[in-house]
Amino acid sequence: MLRDVYSNTVFNQHPRSFSCIPSTASLLSWLGDVMTNAYNPHASCQINAPAADLIEKKLIRFLCDLAGYPKESGGLFVSGGSIANLTALTAARDTKLTYNERGRAVIYVSDQTHASVTKGLLIIGFCKDQIRTIPTDNSFCMDISALRAAIKNDMESGKNPFAVIASAGTTNTGSVDPLTEISATCREHDMWLHVDGAFGASVLLSEKYRKNLSGIELSDSLSLDAHKWLLQTYGCSVVLVRNQETVGS
Ligand SMILES: Cc1ncc(COP(=O)(O)O)c(C=O)c1O
């Protein structure tokens, strides 16, 4: 492994590897991973692992509070941002659409949205022609006028706009979409707002910079990767939802 694999891998683990989205892992996180693998707890439910279950619930509650979500909110730990997005998209589909409405449904992403969103939409049964790519402005943020125009156009042609995927920290530049305005548009048309914060939502922990994510509390779901800026080992990601029942209990 040392000769052939680790020596031929980008060394994100170097303590001075500050450059990129995948971060170096903290020593504590590494130790946690070692212990998890050694003890291999079966933490599937409260009966099997009540202490682990409690820790998970407390941590999800802490993150929901941090996001500004209401008390009915909840979430799940998952293996990465891609699965977090897929989980949220499934919750959006099953909350907003009946089975028969799926064929007319339309989803809006921007030209900066991470590829996992489109992949997730295809995996859960949507077709490419149901996904609209909204242009971004000079700061790589979703152009809200273009979004509104696209929704109007789709409604006039008998389609069913049901979800917008906004980004809190795009992969290319870290840009944040205008979350408050997008949320207002979603509410106007009874659409689901998912925020892909896999990269940037960890900024919620910064008192100084959390204002850059204002409006995130208005979303219906949110992805956050702890294995990016929170220095956790792979894979440690979380999907939060405004209403816990939309992802099961
Ligand atoms: C904005 C964004 N969303 C989703 C992902 C996918 O995350 P993961 O690699 O944990 O599946 C990334 C990864 O860089 C990302 O930057």
How far apart the termini lie comes to 40 Å
Major sheet: arrangement of strands? 1-7-6-5-4-2-3
Helix content: 25-40%
- The rounded Rg comes to 19 Å
CATH class: Alpha Beta
**Chemical compounds bound to the protein:** pyridoxal-5'-phosphate
Which percent range describes the beta-strand content?
15-25%
Tell me the CATH architecture: 3-Layer(aba) Sandwich
What does this protein structure show overall?
- The structure is a single chain.
- With about 250 residues, the chain is an alpha/beta fold.
- It has a single domain, classed as Type I PLP-dependent aspartate aminotransferase-like (Major domain) (Aspartate Aminotransferase, domain 2, 3-Layer(aba) Sandwich).
- The chain is built from 6 helices and 7 strands, in the order ααβαβαβαβαβββ.
- It has helices at about 25-40, 50-65, 80-95, 115-125, 145-155, 180-190, and strands spanning about 75-80, 105-110, 130-135, 160-165, 190-195, 220-225, 235-240.
- The protein has a 7-stranded mixed β-sheet with strand order 1-7-6-5-4-2-3, with helices on both faces.
- The longest helix has 18 residues, at about 50-65.
- It is globular and about 55 Å long.
- The N and C termini lie far apart (about 40 Å).
- Pyridoxal-5'-phosphate binds near residues 114, 116, 167 and 199.
- Pyridoxal-5'-phosphate binds near residues 169 and 237.
